[in-house]
Write a structure and sequence with these properties.
Length: 458
């Protein structure tokens, strides 16, 4: 049976349409695989970065517990230190499995990181053993601490290198995937144009809808996981904060009672250790508050409850409270240059802002230079200024000072966590305010906080 001429053209056109449709389907299938592979790479990189973050947090907590045990002799701190060391080692093992197996450079970096961590853990263990044998070996403890801080810097640098390489690998993979996807999309367009315009339009619409649906579902899943993780972090840090604040309150209350009893019985110089206990407990409580505030801010659950307060009295009480953070009072002077006395502000967030700025000024200044807290007012905002004559902040590093855990290169051996200014930034943003820094190395630093007020009473 011979096919008519039209039938041959129909059959040829139908066969050609099926061929191009097959090419389109094949290209679409490969494009979907590329998208899935890109999503998997994003997830793998996210897990690796999360592991690095957890490792850094465990390392910071271990160091904090080690110091708490050495300075306070608290067995709970020793147990917490041992638990955090186990967490660090667990995160390192997880990191080795997560690193891309074809990247020899990353494997070498992880090995170097593991070596540095082992060296630092050995130093910390040596410090604890030294404390258990001889609690008076302060110089040796200081040397160990200095070396530990140096190793920490090397560890953080190694972590930063690993993070950069992971992001670079992810970017390279995504670019290659994007190129392959674009190439296959071109094939789809050409194939569809050569077959039937209607099939081309319908196929593109269906494909785009499918991809968009996959992306929406992936985004929903990622947002749900991120929200759940944020809630878990807030709950965890809230529980830890509560568990720590109870014994800290007992320590403060007991030390205050001892002070009242011993004030008339012993010389003032003999009360220095008691003052150190009170100061360390208050600083630890302040650190817990900063960590909890930062965690809630990152999870989008930082409470904002403004109410009418007397700002001048608040600043005076804050300055008086901070005088107790050292063995001798620090020279903090409060000046009210404005006409604003009361305003609707969240008192807790304002306390976190000003106390962190003042504590930083105290930490990076000598006890011979005055530190100023100045209150000003503008028609649309309240201004707080904290001025010191300390070591200053290098201009090149000023844009980075609000990043969590970031510390400038000129802090030398001054102990700190790098959380204070990150907390200040979050609290100011919660007030829809603005923070400005002016600083020169060796001259001093001025932080200006502008908070728009809803209702100010003069």
């Amino acid at each position: 049976m011979k096919w008519p001429f039209q039938g041959k053209w129909i059959a040829a056109g139908f066969g050609l349409t099926l061929l191009f449709m097959g090419l389109v389907i094949f290209a679409s299938f490969n494009s979907t695989n590329e998208i899935k592979q890109g999503a998997n790479q994003v997830q793998d990189t996210y897990q690796t970065l999360n592991t690095l973050t957890n490792f850094s947090a465990a390392m910071t907590s271990a160091e904090s517990a080690r110091r708490g045990y050495i300075f306070l002799g608290n067995r709970q701190d020793l147990q917490r230190y041992q638990n955090e060391v186990i967490n660090m080692q667990s995160e390192l093992r997880l990191l080795k499995r997560q690193i891309h197996p074809t990247s020899s450079i990353q494997q070498q970096r992880v090995a170097q990181l593991n070596l540095l961590v082992n060296q630092r853990l050995a130093l910390l263990e040596q410090s604890i053993q030294l404390y258990q044998k001889d609690k008076t070996a302060l110089q040796t403890q200081t040397d160990i601490t200095d070396r530990s801080i140096q190793l920490r810097g090397e560890i953080m640098a190694a972590i930063a290198n690993i993070t950069v390489e992971e992001k670079r690998y992810l970017q390279s993979s995504l670019e290659q995937s994007q190129y392959n996807i674009n190439l296959r999309i071109l094939i789809e367009i050409l194939g569809t144009c050569l077959s039937i315009v209607v099939i081309f339009i319908l196929g593109i619409i269906l494909e785009r809808q499918w991809i968009k649906r996959e992306q929406i579902e992936s985004l929903k899943s990622s947002l749900a996981q991120e929200k759940k993780l944020g809630e878990l972090k807030v709950h965890l840090f809230s529980m830890i904060s509560h568990e720590f604040r109870t014994p800290l309150s007992v320590i403060l209350l007991s030390s205050q009672l001892l002070k009242e009893i011993l004030t008339e019985l012993v010389d003032e110089k003999q009360l220095k250790n008691l003052y150190r206990i009170q100061s360390s407990a208050k600083l630890m409580n302040h650190l817990l508050t900063d960590i909890l505030t930062l965690t809630r801010a990152e999870a989008g659950k930082l409470d904002y409850k403004p109410h009418l307060i007397n700002i001048e009295n608040f600043c005076l009480n804050l300055v008086e409270d901070l005088q107790l953070f050292g063995i001798t009072p620090y020279p903090i002077e409060f000046l009210n240059n404005g006409k604003c006395f009361r305003a609707n502000i969240d008192e807790k967030l304002l306390y976190s802002i000003l106390s962190n700025l003042l504590l930083n000024a105290i930490k990076y200044s000598t006890d011979t230079e005055k530190i100023y807290l100045i209150l000003n007012s503008e028609p649309e905002a309240i201004l707080f200024q904290v001025i010191d004559k300390g070591i200053g902040i290098p201009r090149g590093e000023q844009p980075k000072i609000y990043e969590p855990f970031y510390r400038c290169q000129n802090v030398e051996n001054i102990v700190g966590t790098g959380l204070g200014l990150a907390v200040v930034k979050k609290c100011v943003e919660r007030h829809q305010g603005e923070i400005i820094v002016e600083s020169d190395v060796g001259v001093g630093t001025t932080f200006t906080v502008k908070i728009p007020h809803i209702n100010v009473l003069k």
